[in-house]
Amino acid sequence: MQNPAERLPEINALEAQAVRAAQAGRDQEAVRCWKRILEIDPDHFRTLNVLGQRYFRGGDMPSALSAFRRIVEIDGTNAQQWIHLAITYRNLEDDPAQEVAITRALSLDPMDLVGLILRANLLKKQGRTHEAARAFGAAAAVAPPTEQVHPELRAAVTEARAHAEQYNKDCGAFLDQFLESHLGQFAGENLKRFRESVDILVGRKKRYDSRSMIYHFPNLAPIPFFDRADFPWLDPIEAGTDAIRNEFLEVLATEEGFTPYITYPPDVPHNQWAELNNSPRWSAFHLYKMGKLVTENAARCPTTMQLLAHAPQPDQPGRTPAAMFSLLKPRTRIPAHTGVTNVRLVTHLPLIVPEGCEYRVGNDTRQWVPGRAWVFDDTIEHEAWNGSDKIRVVLIFDIWHPHLTPPERAMITALTSGLNEFTGGAIGFDA
């Protein structure tokens, strides 16, 4: 008797005939050809897969099961082979066998969306509520945006998201009640961080970490807004708000020296900055830019420059210090973004703030108040918007991160100089 390899030409001819018959709608002829192939070679992989799919679509689950089981016996190295088997077991209501197949699939590809949904639904059917919620959450996490989900999976993904969201709501409501008496023991204490940790745990808020775009210094706590009391040197700067604002208004009256805040060249990706790139809707009057004093602009703002001398400005040659008047025009939004390095923080001194202007860092959204400064870590996602019909103006300048030691600051300065020397100044912290 010839082995399958010796009869390969015959198998190839039968397979081609089956494909032509199927395309022409001659299903019975196609099936006869595929069955004949399996008589010659019971392990013909493509034929087993085609027949398994046809049996499944036709509702013949036992025959589909036979084909899919043979496929994993022959190979079993592809998650989709086990997914097909799991779905067939589900339709046959064989839960233990379905669970084994799902486990094998997710062992091969832990991010398989169909596998995660199958596991979640099986756990839900078994009454394993908390495990099912985690599985639904995992499915929701790996699923792309709804419009990108395959139409056959959209309902399942929507259900997964709704199930995970409801579970988090139920958990949050339970914990709120459970913790109420415990929180009462600490009335008057500042438990804002703890409360936010619970909100993140149950999905009421997102987790935001430091995402330094270029240079990240480890073990600096990512704090969205720092405690104002930690920066007593801000007192004289805040006290000089009126004088600083007056100098800005004199500058504004001349309409000279302002440049777009975002100035990417046309041959680099603009990403979220496409709308504001080279736009006067968000402009700056620079006092220090990329570590250098803008002499002409600084000369027009002597009081502002004297007050800025109180700030512990960072020294990163070619990058810092930086200081500017930032002007945001009416009905303009600065999209969410993160800064280049966490070794320096950003300070805002609001000068002109109409109603409808807000600023978000992480989960904390605030309104500027003229004369009241704040310090924040701009490597945490942040955004701003001016929803009014008037301009918004803020004095922005950077400072050393206060948790850096003097030797660390000195070494960061040296590191920046080294990068400049290595690149010839062509590539640095300009972002």
How is the biggest beta sheet arranged? 7 strands, antiparallel
Structural class: alpha+beta
In percent terms, what proportion of residues is strand?
Answer: 5-15%
**Helix-strand pattern:** HHHHHHHHHHHHEEEHHEEEEEEEEH
Q: CA-to-CA gap between the ends?
A: 73 Å
Shape: elongated
Q: Indicate the radius of gyration in whole angstroms.
A: 32 Å
Helix content: 40-55%
Low-confidence stretches are none
Number of helices: 15
Q: How many E-type strands?
A: 11
Mean pLDDT: 89
Secondary-structure map:
Blueprint: H1 8-23, H2 27-40, H3 45-57, H4 61-74, H5 79-91, H6 95-108, H7 113-125, H8 129-142, H9 151-184, H10 192-201, H11 234-239, H12 241-254, E1 259-260, E2 282-289, E3 292-293, H13 295-299, H14 302-308, E4 323-328, E5 332-337, E6 344-352, E7 357-361, E8 364-366, E9 374-376, E10 382-386, E11 392-400, H15 406-423
Keywords for this entry:
single chain, 431 residues, alpha+beta, seven-stranded antiparallel β-sheet, four-stranded antiparallel β-sheet
Care to describe what's here?
Helix 2 (27-40) packs across helix 3 (45-57) and helix 6 packs antiparallel against helix 7 (113-125). The protein has helices at 8-23, 27-40, 45-57, 61-74, 79-91, 95-108, 113-125, 129-142, 151-184, 192-201, 234-239, 241-254, 295-299, 302-308, 406-423, and strands spanning 259-260, 282-289, 292-293, 323-328, 332-337, 344-352, 357-361, 364-366, 374-376, 382-386, 392-400. The protein is 48% helix and 13% strand. The longest helix has 34 residues, at 151-184. Strand 7 (357-361) and strand 8 form a beta hairpin. It has 15 helices and eleven strands. It is elongated, with a radius of gyration of 32 Å. 32% of the residues are buried. The model has no long low-confidence stretch (mean pLDDT 89). With 431 residues, it is of the alpha+beta class. Strands 1, 2, 3, 4, 6, 9 and 11 form a seven-stranded antiparallel β-sheet that branches.
